[in-house]
Amino acid sequence: LSMEDLFDRNYRPIAGTNPQKYSTRFDQFTDRVLPAIQESTLSHNGFAYAIMIDDQGYVPTHNNQYNHKETGNSEVDLVKSRSKRLFNDKTGIRAAQSKEKLLLQTYKRDTGEVLHDLSVPVIVNGRHWGSFRVGFLPDGH
Predict the structure, then answer these.
(1) 19 preceded by cis ω (within 30°)?
(2) Closest Cα partner for 54 from 126, 131, 127?
């Protein structure tokens, strides 16, 4: 994967998706590589998600439990089909663009749960790519 491809920010809409999904030059790579990393992190008790997010809020490859094919029902797809979406709400974009050693936020997810979100920056060859985010329930379950 070239640096140019990894830093592709030309989000091409994927037709027929609601919520809207996008494709980039790096998302096929992340679909192959990230599940092993993200799923092993997600195995810790209490984590709701463990994802990579680029600096614009794009999540190319979500966790397996949220990475189902679209059903055509936007309410189901909001929860079950979260890969290749832009999460550029206030919390998402702040996490994506933070260069602090860590950032802890509490927010109401678009699916209704209140979660703590811990993010750390991802630097590739000296360039800030985005962040690694983990979300967990306030009570730890």
Answers:
(1) yes
(2) 131
Tokens of 50: 């463990």
Q: Which helix (H) or strand (E) element contains residue 131?
A: strand 127-136
List, in sequence order, every residue forming a beta bridge with 119; answer none if it has no partner. Answer: 103, 133
Q: What pLDDT digit, counting tens, does each position of 39-74 carry?
A: 999 887 789 999 999 999 999 999 999 999 999 898
**CB hemisphere CA count around 18 (13 angstroms):** 5
Q: 1 vs 8, 33, 65, 111, CA distance in Å?
A: 11, 11, 26, 33
How is residue 31 written in tokens? 């679909």
Q: How far apart are CA 46 and CA 24, in angstroms?
A: 31
DSSP state of 76: H
Rounded Cα distance, 49 and 66, in Å: 9
